[in-house]
Amino acid sequence: MTPNQPDKIQGDQAFRTHQLEGRDLEMTYGGAVSFLRRKYTRDLDVADIAVTGIPFDMATSNRPGARLGPRAIRAASVGLAELDAYPWGFDPFDTVRVADYGDCYIDYGYPHQAVERIEAHADEILATDTMMLSLGGDHFVTYPLLRAHAKKFGPLSLIHFDAHCDTWDDDGSRLDHGSMFLRALNEGIIDPATSVQIGIRTHNSSTHGFTILGAPWVHREGIPAVLDVVREVVADNPAYLTFDIDCLDPAFAPGTGTPVSGGLSTAQALEAVRGLGEFNIIGMDVVEVAPPYDVSEITAIAAATIAHDFICLQAVRAGAVPTEYGRI
């Protein structure tokens, strides 16, 4: 704290601040960790966005560890909390009020209660008309989140970044992070005709009606072409954005359970997410960060930055004006 800022909170603002707007002084290397140092609260009366963790990885088909993802993403976000947002040139918390809602409680001894618990957790937040930004957890957690959002918004378009299509055979009851979007399709929660899957580089015998932009196509055509396709397919439909961190190449995101070579770079992913501001996105998650396999937090930092930039998009929609800094 400097002498001319006597009203600033000195550390631990996740617990000590009395408001959701603005931000106070923190040490990047210390203090209570919340996402972007936002206040921990379940009082969402004035919140625009609620960040919440979904620490579940019992639907994982390869390496476990994504249950530790929410904690790692929060820890990786502290550096982003200390600076005006690049390349936006503004403080998003001057425009949108963001709360850290804490984590959904999921009893590891009753994994088949996970869908019910996550859906009820999301129902509670959405009932307050607060946008959800969820931190996984393996990708199966998106299924109950979609169920909750579809109850509020109707059938959804999906903007899906991933190495995997996650539409393999599903019997309607298995816990599997590779089949839940087929289940969501069969239940009428998502509309494949207005949905796009980006960065895919694993094969399925059927597209199930989704528009699929494979990673090689993205590399050849570039992110502007990706956004053109999203514009054509998704249009102004209510859309849910789900970002599986294994959409990134393992060089950029080693800390994940099912890495696949040939993926997007972090720079490509950020350019894509930053280009989604025109779409009617009603919720988002970032999933599959598995800290036991991470190196120097690079996967968690990528996930935190993607989530941070989604918040910046909402600030722009709410009236924040980006300030150009150099050639972006």
What's the shape?
globular
Main sheet attributes: strand count, strand direction, barrel closure: 8 strands, parallel
CATH topology: Arginase, Chain A
Let me know the average pLDDT.
94
Helix content: 25-40%
Structure annotation, total helices: 9
User: How large is the share of residues in beta strands?
Assistant: 5-15%
CA-atom Rg in angstroms: 19 Å
As residue ranges, the low-confidence spans are: none
Calculate the terminal CA-CA distance, rounded to whole Å.
Answer: 33 Å
3D structure, described in words:
By secondary structure, the protein is α/β, with parallel strands linked by helices. It has a single domain, classed as Ureohydrolase domain (Arginase, Chain A), CATH 3.40.800.10. The chain contains 9 helices and 8 strands. α5 links the parallel β4 (157-161) and β5 (196-200). The longest helix has 20 residues, at 298-317. The two termini are 33 Å apart.
Outline:
The protein has 328 residues and is α/β, with parallel strands linked by helices.
Can you give keywords for this protein?
single chain; 328 residues; alpha/beta; Arginase, Chain A; eight-stranded parallel beta sheet
How do the strands and helices of this protein lay out in sequence?
Blueprint: H1 13-16, E1 49-54, H2 69-76, E2 98-103, H3 114-126, E3 131-136, H4 142-153, E4 157-161, H5 180-186, E5 196-200, E6 211-214, H6 215-221, H7 223-234, E7 239-244, H8 266-274, E8 281-287, H9 298-317
Parallel strand pairs: 1-2, 1-3, 3-8, 4-5, 4-7, 5-6, 7-8
Helix pairs in contact: 2-9, 3-4, 4-5, 7-8, 8-9
